[in-house]
Amino acid sequence: MYLADYHLHASCSPDGILTIPQIARQAIEVGLDEICITDHLDTIWWKDYSPRDSFDWPEVLRQYEEAQSLYGDRIKIRLGAEQGEAVINFDIADKLQREAPPLDFIIGSVHTTNKKLGYFDIYYMEERGSDYYNAIIDGYMEETMNLLRWGKFHVLGHLMLPLRYLQRRFGIVLPPDPWMDRIEEVLRCIVDHGLGLEINTGTGTIHLPSEDVLRRYRRLGGELITIGSDAHKAEHIGAGITQAQETLRRLGWQYFATFEQGKPIFHHL
Ligand SMILES: [Zn+2]
Ligand SMILES: [Zn+2]
Fold first, then answer.
1. CA–centroid distance, residue 84 to ligand 1 (Å)
2. Around ion ligand 1, which residues have CB less than 5 A away?
3. What is the pTM (predicted TM-score) of this model?
4. How many distinct structural domains can be found in the chain?
């Protein structure tokens, strides 16, 4: 089976530690056929939320070329980005993408609530009760729709991310059911705009989106799917990829996708 991990963070992400050659070496070690580096291309600095309108592409390219020369004959290495927080400033997101080298693949991600709640980073949500969780998730859904209307990416990343944080941090397991109408709106928008959806394995822990969301996507005509671990550390590279492939097969998918210069390449499951 062809194995590709399409969500990997290197040292040019604020929370990344591995260089691209280190990622490639580990990916070969765990038997992957292809990887795509998707560092955080954010419109804000994480520390103080100030605008961030530049990115260290020379360093990314230096690492990428080193990885290609060391390991390019043993694994396919693609260059992508995780476009984060475009919703906070679409002009900056446009600029960041304009100034990027040719990228194979872009994940569009929302990690925050909405403007009304100050684009609060949902990673820092607290254990405060259902009204609070609902407000955060509503804000997240609103910004996810705004991101989709902009649409300058290939797949939507980790749909329903707040549910993972609630489960991981507080052991609160919320089914996506109350938001299913809004999720359906998101999925329709993905299909209508010719975009795709990511299965994000959460480093092999809580896969997003859940199976009922995937089923709904398929029923609406959704086909395009990539799979990524969201690894920031060596031990998480490739985690959950085969399990996600099994899930897709079980739900009736025959193909998953990788990308080359923005064009999907389909692989049999
Ligand atoms: Zn993300
Ligand atoms: Zn990520």
1. 7
2. 109
3. 0.97
4. 1
